[in-house]
Amino acid sequence: MPITFKQHTLSNGLTVLAESDPDAHTSAVGFYVKTGARDETAPLMGVSHFLEHMMFKGTARRSAEDVNREFDELGADYNAFTSHEQTVYYAHVLPEYLPRAIDLLGDMLRPALRTDDFDMEKNVILEEIGMYDDRPEWRLQDTLLESYFGEHPLGYRVLGTNDTITALTADQMRTYFEHRYGPDNIVVALAGKLDWDATLADLETLCGQWKPTGADRPPSDVSVQTHEQNLTDERVNRHYLATLLPAPSAQDELRYAARVLGDLIGDDDGSRLYWALIEPGLADEASFSFMPMDHAGAYMAFLTCDPAKAKPVAETLLAELAKVKDTLQQGEITRAVNKLATSVTLRGERPAGRMHRLGGEWLYRKRFIPLEDDLARLQAVTLDEVVAVLEAFPLEPRTTLRLGPAS
Fold it and tell me: Residue 218's pLDDT is what?
């Protein structure tokens, strides 16, 4: 039987979406909250991620131990994550356990937010910040985003900083939660084998009394900064280089061609940077990726190498970017399209992959695009369209940061 799309909005604004597949052997459900680092204020930086942790600390009906035990009892593949633009809680289970997974996740989204749990978890968050500070690539990326986006909250650190997390209070978190976690700011996405009518009834009972809050994300101008900066750290022994430059947004029709361009320039295997930097042994890592965001977008280049090779690596990167437009060939575009189409198709073969695609698509564009249509649009990308991306976003201006040994 064919996969069918279902959609319904509860009276309080909670949007429920599903790709129902009677022939699937598993079911997936995710609660997608349109909130992240870009929705915070500078003093509250990191509250979205901290709140994600608190969702697992128990509710009025469940203790933290109950939450973990029930996920284990369901045999669920479950997790949560926070980005600059969304916070997601999800589970992938056998179909007979889907109602229980929905009840568990929905209950979690109305957490107890006890002060004792908050105080204890704050230490965990501070340890996590310290762990990421020990990783040069993450420190470089955080600093790069801050430098590139300037005062815009897209430059905020998802984990926050030692200062903001230390100063954060439980009452501030509760206030943030009460506003950002309204049902009118949440999408529930499901995929796989499911009973649509029964699922809607369960969600109505579980979430129907949640009060809408009017949370939104007004479009804000992104004014990117352009500069270069050299950083040193006596703890590192490799050279790191990261660059950000403008690209189409998640809503821009050019996003398909932009994704193809990013792949042919800097995919892990067979891209231009692979042949120019990895294959000759100049760099340990060389990537160039497309980052579509809500009404904003960027490309990120990231390279690591021996410090002695820092100059030729940087020169090679700039040379490759400079010649892309004049040397594009349909053959490499076709190869990139086929690789991306394979990746999209493989992801779509699992209910969890379809769930994530469905939830993310709705948060950014509030519409459903069948996987087949999405693939067809990707496979229709032409040489002229990729050139159009380069004309609209000519791989500059750039913000570049370098991190290397103190010597």
Answer: 86
For residue 275, which amino acid is it? W
Cα–Cα nearest to 14, from 159, 209, 195? 209
Average pLDDT of the chain to the nearest whole number: 96
CA-CA distance, 183 to 187, in Å (whole number)?
8
Is pLDDT above 90 for 397? no
In sequence order, which ranges of 150-182 are alpha helices (DSSP H)? Answer: 162-167, 170-180
Which residue matches tokens 């698509």?
Answer: 361
Residue listed under structure tokens 């007004």: 218
Tell me which residue of 401, 360, 42 sits closest to 245, measured CA to CA. 401
d(CA 396, CA 115): 47
- Please give the Cα distance from 121 to 57 (Å, whole number): 9
Place of tokens 């949640």: 210
Q: Are 35 and 181 a contacting pair, CB within 8 Å? A: yes
The torsion angle over the Cα atoms of residues 182, 183, 187 and 188, rounded to 10 degrees, is 120
Model confidence, pTM: 0.96
Among 109, 86, 108, smallest CA distance to 360 is for 86
Q: Which residues contact 345 (CB under 8 A, 6 or more apart)?
A: 371, 375
Question: How far out from the chain centre does Cα 38 lie?
Answer: 12
Higher-confidence residue of 224 and 119: namely 119
* Per-residue pLDDT band at 226 (split at 50, 70, 90): confident
Element (H, E) at 29: strand 27-33
Q: What are phi and psi of 240, to 5 degrees?
A: -120, 140
313 in Cβ contact with 282 (< 8 Å): yes
Q: Are 369 and 41 in contact (CB under 8 A)?
A: no
